[in-house]
Amino acid sequence: MFRKSALIASFIVHVLGFVGEAAWETVVIKFRQIALLSRTPRFPELDEPRNIVIIGASFAGYYAAQVIASKLPPNSPYRVVIIEPHSHFHFTWVLPRFCVVDQEQKAFIPYGPLLKGAPEGRVRWVRERVAKVNRNGVWLEKSREQIPYDFLVVATGSGAAAGLPSRVPVDTKEEGTALLQDMQHNIKQAQHLVVVGGGAAGVELATDVKHMYPGKFVTLVHSRKAVMHRFGPELQAAALQGLKDLGIETVLHERTASSNIVDGQITLQSGRRIRCDFLVNCTGQRATSGIMTELAPEAISPTGAIRVKPSLQIQDDKLSNVYACGDVADVGIDNPNARSALRQGMVVGFNIVRAATGGSPTKTYKPFWGECVIKLTLGLDKSIVHIGNGKTELWWRSKEKDISLDAAGAWNHLGVKPFQDDDGLEKQVE
Ligand SMILES: Cc1cc2nc3c(=O)[nH]c(=O)nc-3n(C[C@H](O)[C@H](O)[C@H](O)COP(=O)(O)OP(=O)(O)OC[C@H]3O[C@@H](n4cnc5c(N)ncnc54)[C@H](O)[C@@H]3O)c2cc1C
User: Fold this and answer.
1) Which of 123, 143, 217, 355 has the most CB atoms lying inside 10 A of its own CB?
2) Residues 189, 272 within the same domain
3) Global model pTM greater than 0.85
4) E strand spans, 177-335
5) Atom 35 (ligand 1) nearest CA
6) Domain named FAD/NAD(P)-binding: which ranges (predicted)?
């Protein structure tokens, strides 16, 4: 009991500390801006603005862009160049749910409002993918344009080779909604469904399917001894019970030999066969660091994540103007998550504003276990909220009333009225 109370107290102290820290940083930057403006022009007149290039505009990159665009002094020679191939922000949390229920439009949030209010010309938005990066600049995949940078932020996140339900592997909203509708259709048609991977995406998808279609046979295959193995034993047990309660067969410590369905069956490495007419692969997320192999091969860890210093500058003293944040950065957390990606994006943003206004990038990111708080759904109307610090776990059951898992909250957070999409918001920042 004492341990759990201590966990709650420590969580509250950290959250308050974070809010205070962000407010303090805003004050410091405001003072710096006023000081710069009150002096005679500190920045040289340039024909071309200097570029702060941000690759990837999800939780980490989009928030880094917001901090930089809003906090650079108005007379700064720098502009923010955001390079992101997606037409809309992909809200990952709801993807397993929207593979099953037809709310897919809500997973795609229009870009733009977070950057409103930035001075004219401060932001250039490029709808493209970066093919490679070196010291001279970044190269775009289709146009082949080379964009030089003074500062670079790598916020390319992580990817799943299988695509859905962990990532939407296409760029436009139209293509994305079509993929989700295909998945809903295939699940509806299947009678014997196999879900591979017992992390959050696999558990949530399997339980949603079985709740929505109780007559289907759903099997979850997971290679570890427990589902949700990256979390504590109490959550593992509660998740397993949730699967059982719905009538899902969970096969642990087993891998599929291949994803091919042969004669209506899939084969496990043990030789066991399971009836299957549709398989959903929920495994294999990996940091998306491929574009950095030329610039900083030494900084890429065996997991694919980019090693960073506490300031989130990459681990290469020759590249102090290059930062990485979010899922792609190796910051020493077991469960990369959106909250920590967002906070890292803000740390990078503050450090670049400091460096671009004559200061030092002294702000640091310290991983906080409370950022890994998870709400794990176990069917359409039940969930478990869980926090843990590796030693103590605290969790409780909750009722889910909103079939779209409060997607509206995410829209609001990104400054967009739910669920209005006029497809024009992005143009306002071009
Ligand atoms: C199914 C699921 C549920 C989740 N639920 C939660 C949850 O409940 N709570 C939570 O906190 N976290 C959750 N997460 C984790 C969270 O989604 C990630 O931690 C978060 O998205 C990481 O953000 P990011 O900005 O680092 O990268 P990502 O979200 O991975 O985005 C990377 C961006 O970079 C862009 N990009 C990649 N390569 C290039 C390139 N070469 N050129 C240009 N752009 C590029 C991509 O298009 C993308 O927009 C969930 C994840 C999944 C998969």
Assistant:
1) 123
2) yes
3) yes
4) 192-196, 217-222, 249-252, 265-267, 273-275, 278-281, 285-287, 306-307, 322-324, 329-330
5) 56
6) 51-334
